[in-house]
Structures are given as structure tokens and as C-alpha cells.
Amino acid sequence: MNNKILRDLNYGVYVIGSKDNERLVGCIANSVMQITSDPATIAISINHDNYTNECIKKTNKFSISILNEESNPEIIGTFGFHSSRDTDKFANIAHTEVDDLPVVTDTNGYITCELISTLETSTHTIFLGKIISCAKTDTKNPMSYQYYHQVLKGQSPKNAPTYQPNLAEEIKGSRWQCQICGYIYEGEDLPLDFTCPICGQPKEVFKKIS
Length: 210
Prior knowledge:
single chain; Pnp Oxidase, Chain A; Rubrerythrin, domain 2
């Protein structure tokens, strides 16, 4: 079975936001879709292990910030490879609050939703939300899942529904892989002052792929 075909399905890259009491929480998601127009309803898929999953169930609402191709890749590193259980992900990320929910500024816009239903799978919860408000704040190309992999050379977080650990292992040659987020650097040697453009980690966390 060739799992690479799954990457031909269309996905975006989004920050899903919620709250833990007054503390802001969030995670990266690529499974977001509109399923009805009236009332306008959105479906998202969040892993059971993500703290944001738990917070959405408590607050009964969530936000979606839509990343574009020029959004700072560190947003993905922050929200995709750390846990809101022990990390204030919004501390160094420009954001505002809409409908008492966090939205990231460096994006194409946002959607806020009121939770109306859930569906549990073995690993993920599918949340259905009725749109409360939405706004387009930029006109750049939305970041696609394919762009994230092919241009930014990032890998999916292990909690993502599209995570495929075997694909990173297929890469051969003079390349270096970040052991935190999976970013691939192409070149014989890493620059002395190199840091990962996705998660900000130093060159010491990179492993040469041979």
C-alpha cells in the first residue's frame, strides 16, 4: 500500500484555539471543512491526546485561524510540536481575541464556532461547530498541507490524522532532519548558527539522514 497518495487529498494548515478557564490554548490541525451552508457548519478533527480537545469539550466553542504561505513557520512549530498542558503557546505569537476565543494575527483570517455535536473515533474527536463569526484579514495564498511538506519541508505532528512516520525515513542523501518537528535541511553540513525554521531548535537536534 502506497500511503503517499493520501497527500494528494486537499488539506489546509490551521490553528485551532480554545480556552482553559482564562488561559489560551491551541493546536495545529489540517482536517477542517465546511459541511453545510445554512446554518454554516464547520467540522474539525482533533486527537484525543491534544489538550485543546479537552478544552473544546469544556468550553463548547473553538476558533480556527487560517494560515497562509507567508505565515511565520514558527507558528506551526509552536502549536504543532508542544503541548498547551505545559506551554503558553500564545506568549510569543501575535494574536487577539474574538468571541472570547484566541485567533492568530499572522493569518488570512479566522472563524469562531459554537460546538453543536461531536463524534468519537478511536484516536480523534470530530467536532461540529456552528459559525458565530468569521473575517478575512489577508489575501495571501492559503497554506496547503502539500505546501507545508514540499516547500517548508515539514512533517506532520504525531497526533495529526495524516501522520505517516515511514515517509520521512524514505529520504536519502546529504540531508538533515530535525528530531523535534521533522523539518528537512538539504546540504552537506549545517551552518554553525543554524536553527530550525519550523520549531526554532538548534542544529544539535538535527540528525543526518544517510
